């Protein structure tokens, strides 16, 4: 009887083991770049989305984030799992337009129609895995991640409606290679757009309660420069934002 129980347990676990996805796997139309402990995950498209409006005469892969002097309510979510909500809010405010969120929302890449513009933290997470993503794309085909600025779906808070967040995948400090860096940029500037989607269209990474705690229980302590000196903020330089929960965000505000 004990032997039968052991066999039953093994058989019950086999489907779970065989269907789990790893970072870098080609799955459901793109490359897996994030997994949580509950089996949810994020996939990045294998290719860039071409602009549907001529924002730039030199590059058809760049699009504006949105109108510069318009605050789009509901696009402030920074969290993993928040990109879909940001994108849906933007589409509700700007339907049938040609901005970054619109072209992600309208994409049917890989036969899927649930693509969206990643939140700030989703985009950051993708850029942390850029080497694995690019290796997989070189194997399966598509566009490797370019080294330029990419839009996220996260707008800055209402006190300054001109900007939205994005990420540079590659940076260097004094010539030394460094990881991605978060950037705040003018919304009416055309930059690269890379869509993502949730595995099985399940974006429930955080409960509403945990999202509220994440966004309300975090306050800024100070801002420092590369030498650790406290500053009020300098444009076009790397700054470190230190929060009371122990997290540190690296940013560049481009004028």
Distance between the termini: 72 Å
Oligomer: single chain
Radius of gyration: 20 Å
Q: Helical content, roughly?
A: 25-40%
C-alpha geometry = globular
Q: Please mark out the parts with pLDDT under 50 across 5 or more consecutive residues, or reply none.
A: 1-19, 207-215
What's the β-strand tally? 14
**Biggest sheet, strands in spatial order?**
5-6-9-14-13-12
Number of domains: 2
- Output the helix-strand order: HEEEEHHHHEEEEEEEHEEE
Total helical elements: 6
Approximately what portion of the residues adopt beta-strand conformation?
Answer: 15-25%
Largest sheet: 6 strands, mixed
Mean pLDDT: 83
Main structural class: alpha+beta
């Amino acid at each position: 009887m004990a032997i039968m129980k052991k066999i039953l347990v093994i058989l019950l676990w086999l489907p779970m083991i065989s269907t789990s996805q790893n970072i870098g796997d080609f799955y459901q139309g793109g490359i897996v770049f994030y997994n949580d402990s509950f089996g949810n995950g994020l996939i990045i498209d294998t290719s860039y989305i071409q602009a549907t409006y001529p924002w730039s005469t030199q590059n058809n892969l760049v699009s504006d984030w949105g109108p510069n002097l318009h605050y789009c309510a509901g696009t402030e979510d920074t969290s993993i799992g928040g990109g879909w909500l940001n994108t849906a809010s933007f589409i509700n405010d700007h339907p049938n337009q040609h901005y970054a969120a619109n072209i992600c929302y309208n994409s049917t890449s890989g036969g899927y129609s649930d693509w969206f513009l990643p939140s700030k933290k989703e985009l950051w997470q993708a850029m942390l895995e850029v080497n694995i993503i690019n290796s997989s794309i070189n194997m399966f085909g598509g566009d490797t991640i370019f080294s330029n600025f990419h839009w996220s779906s996260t707008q800055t808070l209402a006190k300054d409606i001109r900007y939205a967040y994005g990420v540079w995948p590659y940076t260097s400090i004094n010539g030394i290679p460094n990881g991605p860096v978060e950037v705040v940029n003018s919304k009416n500037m055309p930059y690269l757009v890379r869509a993502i989607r949730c595995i099985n269209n399940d974006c429930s990474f955080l409960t509403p309660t945990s999202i509220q705690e994440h966004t309300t229980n975090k306050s800024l302590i100070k801002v420092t420069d590369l030498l650790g000196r406290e500053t009020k903020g300098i444009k076009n330089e790397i700054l470190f934002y230190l929060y009371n929960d122990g997290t540190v965000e690296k940013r560049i505000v481009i004028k």
